Amino acid sequence: MAHLSLRGHSLGLIHGVLFDKDGTLSHSEPHLIQLADARTEEIIRVFASRGASSDVQAELQDLLKRAMGRCDSGLIPDGTLAVASRQHNLLSIATIFCLFDLSWPQAIVLAEEIFDTVDRLHKQSPTKASSRTPLPYSKELLNELHSAGVVCAVISNDTHHGIEQFLHDHGLSQFITGIWSADDTPCKPNPGAVHGLCKKLHLNPSDCALIGDADSDLLMACRAGIGCALGYVAGWHRTPDLTSHQYLIHHWQELRVEQAQ
Ligand SMILES: [Mg+2]
User: Which helix (DSSP H) or strand (DSSP E) does residue 155 occupy?
Assistant: First the structure.
């Protein structure tokens, strides 16, 4: 455990820190833009091959962008692709297919096929690992916390494999004691996700801080009885609009770690 302070303000004695991944530890926006565009491109290709007119294709493309939170300058930080799990994104896209007269069973099957196709193409892309880099000074902070005896963990709606891959690719695995992913039950933003992870780590939620870039993370933290809910706002081109935080972090260097005596 260690004393944490933010811009000179004491946050108290902290035993563990639960980090969100996308937009908090990881600069995920370039990767998620690629993913949004690849899914949109594949959906338009499929609908065009089924005879959709150019007007229908344009309407579909517009709805897909809005549903995913893809704007001209990048990605909306509290949009579906930035915050929700793959499965929730799949349901969101399937709902759009229903607006184009597919039945729900047809819509789900088509959304699954398209997501799988894009995942396969994405895996073969040489830019994959380099398109998600740690945000500035996040590695240094994890090292500092770990050295001071603070348990660090990741709580994310990415898959377990996706989280491990990111940590491994950037030499962060050594600092992370536990992972709670979209593969775990319940997943974020259910407060049970915090309880499940804290139980695995033998930590009391009230002795922990949780840091995330979405209100869903911060609300979950409050409902789970987390001691300190911190919003991180420097992970996207557009500053996330947060309301459920105790404090906001604008840069990882604002956080100071002091070893407890
Ligand atoms: Mg996030």
Answer: strand 151-155
How far apart are the CA of 83 and the centre of ligand 1, in A?
6
Q: List 94's β-bridge partners, or say none.
A: none
64 and 90 Cβ atoms separated by less than 8 Å? no
CA of 202 to the centre of ligand 1 (A): 24
Sorted by sequence, the CB contacts under 8 Å of residue 143 that are 6+ apart come out as: 175
Distance 233 CA to ligand 1 centre (A): 10
- Region at 48 (left for phi over 0; alpha for psi -120 to 50; beta for the rest): alpha
Helix (H) or strand (E) holding 60: helix 54-68
State the pairing for strand pair 133-134/74-75.
Answer: unpaired
pTM score, whole prediction:
0.91
Structure tokens, 154: 């990741």
pLDDT tens string 84-141:
989 999 999 999 999 999 999 999 999 999 999 999 987 766 555 456 899 999 999 9
CA of 239 to the centre of ligand 1 (A): 12
Domains of the chain (ranges, CATH numbers) = 2-28+132-259 (3.40.50.1000), 29-123 (no CATH)
Residue 99, both tokens = 């607006």
Q: Where are the alpha helices (DSSP H) in 100-136?
A: 104-123
Residue 20 · residue 36 · CB < 8 Å: no
